[in-house]
Model the fold of this input.
Amino acid sequence: MVAIFGLSPRKETLVKALAAILANKEIRRAIEVIEFLTNEGVHIGFECYQSVLEGCLESRQFILAGKFVIEMTKRGFIPYIRSRQKVVEGLTSIGEWKLANAVRQRFAELRS
Done:
């Protein structure tokens, strides 16, 4: 629909579709959907990004969450404070100090 006809799905439709993908614990697929739609020029709202980030944190995929947060902030979206804390704490708990520092530095650049 998006690639062939150039149609943009509504925000509610995207939130519901991502919620269904996340319910099946397919975190990587949800991130791929967001990347595809962004590359096609579709506006993705904050709710979509935040729900995927929460899915990463619930499934304890902290490295993926850290990379996703960096991409999220590049697009101008700042996650909720509790999500930011969980990402940094999760990365440090698994020994990913460099990525945790990169995420913290990115938040410091945004003054958040």
Residues 54 and 83 are 7 Å apart (CA to CA). The radius of gyration is 14 Å. The domain at 10-109 is CATH 1.25.40 (Serine Threonine Protein Phosphatase 5, Tetratricopeptide repeat). The chain has a mean pLDDT of 88.
